Amino acid sequence: MVDTIWLIYLGMSPFVLGILIVYKLGGPLEAYYRIARIPYFAMTVFGPDGSEGFQLVRQELIRRQSPPMFSINGKTRQIDESNHGYHHGRPKYYFNYDDMTSIPINLPILKWNSHKINPSLIDAAWNDKFLEDLAKIGAKVPPLVTLLIVVLAISLIAVVAGIASTYYSHNAFCAVNPRAC
Question: Among candidates 33, 16, 15, which has minimal Cα distance to 25?
Answer without folding.
Answer: 33
